[in-house]
Amino acid sequence: MLPGPREATLPPATNSDYRVLFIRYERIGDMIMATSLIRNIARALPGGRVDVIATPTTAPVLQGNPYVGRVLVLQRNSFRSYGDLIRQLRRERYTVMVDGRINNPPIFTSTPLLMYAGRAHFRVGAGGDREPRIYNVCVPEWNRVDHYIEGSKRLAVPFGVDPESVDWQPEIFLADKERAGAEEQWKEARELVRPASGATTGVTKRLLVNLSASEPKRRWPDGKFIATLQAARAQAPNMPIIVIGLPVEWESVSEVATAVNGLPVRTPQLREAFALVGTSDMVFTPDTSISHAASAFRRPSLVLLKRDHRQYAPWNTPGEIIAWNEDEIHQLPHERVSEALDKLLADFGG
What we know:
elongated, Rossmann fold, 350 residues, six-stranded parallel beta sheet, alpha/beta
């Protein structure tokens, strides 16, 4: 039912009519990691841009990205949204559709439906030798041992990209207004710890602390955050600290910030959290999208990461990773995390 040959090689991209649609929905962190792949595919095209299918949750990651053309939004719990997107895909006539979801077999996803609606003659994906065959330009399947971005690199090869000759760091682009708003909040955080004399001693770099995680099993307890940050505060009394979390966790955010003389900041919009990451000097967070945002801004980080999730660690990011192997993250002792935070401050807080 899908157009084009059963197996194919991508034709050369010779003009702006050569249009590529990248499919990547679901998780914010996955979309952040995908920005490097989007960039490297876009640079191989005459138009220099790639259209992307995203969700209302992940679309903010792409805001202001010069390598992204149109963002087609899919609300996955809405039949109407599916219908609207399918009609849009039928009109667009993309040359190539790329399935960026290398960690999910396409037979169990919406991808086959979207590719059928798009009618693109070339469909790029990983592990496409399974039946029913969805892709006709296939790259090797991700082995789930190497980093997720290592597996994603192969999707750029059919476009003539040499994975070893390009940069794979993710990117998030901030508007001047977003950056300015975050700077005002950091000024407020600095006022909380400014000595009466105006003198500054010790660590004065900005530390952003994110409490929230995407799942309860990755959420470290507030009390352990407090104990760890109080130890750091004793070593760095003048360090500005901002604490953030999901809107539903505002009580925890306020409690932790107050206990460590930090500033609690509401971030009802994802871009507001990104702006704080981008203007920080260091980030302390569980394994969640904020850790990948730190990677996109190249911010040294302390990340609490389940040991068997190392392939989803922030890409090429300086700092410390606590690869916890306890049954539940709440069993992770704060002393171990305090030691890693001390090292982060020693290495990057001067």
